[in-house]
Amino acid sequence: MAGVVRFARRDRGSIIVLSLFLFLGILMVAGLAVDMAHFEERRTRMQATLDSAVLAAADINQALEPTDVVADYFERAGLDDSPVDVSVNEGLNFRSVQATTRVTVPTMFVRLVDVDQFSSPAGSTAEENIGNVEISLVLDVSGSMGDTGAGSSDTKIQLLRVAAGEFVDTMFDSIQAPGLPAGKLSMSLVPYNQQVALGSDLGGDFNFTIEHNRSHCADFTAADFGSAGISPTQLLKRAAHGDFRYSYSPPYFIECQQQADHDVLALGNSRSTLKTRINQLQDGGDTAIDVGMKWGVALLDPALRPLVDTRISEGKTDAALAGRPFDYGLDDALKVVVVMTDGQNTNTYAIRDQYKSGPSSLVKGKDNKYYYYYPPRSGTSDFYDTSANRWRSLSFIGGSYTVLDYADVWSLMSVPYFSTNYVKEATGSSSFASNAITRTSYGVKDDQLLAVCNAAKQQGVVVFAIGFEAPNEGRAVLQDCATADAYYYDAEGTTISDAFAGIASAINALRLTQ
């Protein structure tokens, strides 16, 4: 009996047994962690490969069979030991690719507790659906674009022509490829310097005031930049066709430079027509990014649809573009503005409304000479002859005269020239030009640019921006204008092509859903 009691009380070695069990538990937990890490690494790598593979396979322009594309991705990743099931659904303008597989990893440690492997399904789906895309290219054609590009023998306008042409090719290849229904892509070209000239054809479809018909540029108020659209019935103040900066006769610097290489091309869907117009771009003038952006956004706004319908009925716009610009917010309609500058906003000059048209103080005598007409005085010499610096009588100038309209005066001479050589000569006052001309400073124009950029972004328009060797001020305002930081591009020299290529790639990515 005593021996049994002693045996029961003997506890030597019990701690060792407990320690062995704890050690085995620790080893099992550590082994589980190693096995799980190994499995997760494999699963993550396989999922990433699967995602990339189906994105590439879903590309409508992909020449290889989707199954072959997925298999190639897995082979290159060293995962070709895992069978992948690929299913494809495609039509005339869409392709959907779904791929599924199973991640299976043998265990090294937890097999001690009869768990031989970890396994989990993996799958990914990508669809490319070529919906409708509307693009406005807002391109700086100011005088500095005639400077040589950095690291290149070509001017910046030449480099822009190449880059923008390549962009057009990429967009047509990916969105309006041969065989797809017509009308998937529309693209507007908005060249700008200190103004945007619509040209007589497009400008005739807007409701401009009728001071003259020499050009079709609009003078906007600050409030106009807070909205995205311009309706064809909206009354637009026609910019005076004149020179408000320099004292020359005839005018030297016309604010609205309407000529073929500056005119807007609205809602084009012909690759060749767009590229021809791009190749016609010439440099000259100052920089009004705000005005360029205002028109670029307006050409995407549904308020313009009646004008497009009218132009379709007149045979000026392809009938395949009926219904554009589409309403905002449609799932299958992407609206994009690409705005580019090599500078920054400069001051804008315009003439006050009361001096745009109406009877002026310049008269033409019957003898076909021009005189400053001074309000009748008490005597008979009421016409100031600037060539002789003296007043003349009515009989001296032929007995009759014609009062010129202000719009006609500005086609003959600049406002400062008229002010100095007629008003001041006759009256001694030099205030006419300062009273007649308005100036919008570059700071206000930056605010106007951001206002129209925000109006566009609030409607879901995607804004890309390129600073092409632009100064810090121009780069900063474009960065604020862009939809996101990643949608702003800096470019120098030939890298302008890289910027446009990056934007083209981003536009295509925006059309992909996962």
Q: Estimate the global geometry from the Cα principal axes.
A: elongated
* Low-confidence runs of at least 5 consecutive residues: none
* Measured distance between first and last alpha carbons: 80 Å
User: Mind telling me the C-alpha Rg?
Assistant: 36 Å
Largest sheet: 6 strands, mixed
The portion of residues assigned to helices is 25-40%
If helices are DSSP runs of H or I spanning 4 or more residues, what is the number of helices?
14
The share of residues in extended strands comes to 15-25%
Strand numbers in spatial order across the main sheet: 9-5-4-10-18-19
Compute the number of strand runs: 20
**Oligomerization category of the chains in this entry:** single chain
Average per-residue pLDDT, rounded, comes to: 87
The chain-level structural class is alpha/beta
Structural account:
It is built from 14 helices and 20 strands. The protein has 514 residues and is an alpha/beta fold. The protein has a six-stranded mixed β-sheet with strand order 9-5-4-10-18-19, sandwiched between helices. Strands 15-14-13-12-16 form a five-stranded antiparallel β-sheet. A four-stranded antiparallel β-sheet has the order 1-2-3-20. Strand 18, helix 13 and strand 19 form a beta-alpha-beta unit. Helix 4 packs parallel to helix 14 and helix 7 runs parallel beside helix 12. The longest helix is centred in the first third of the chain and has 45 residues. It starts with a helix and ends with a strand. 40% of the residues are buried.
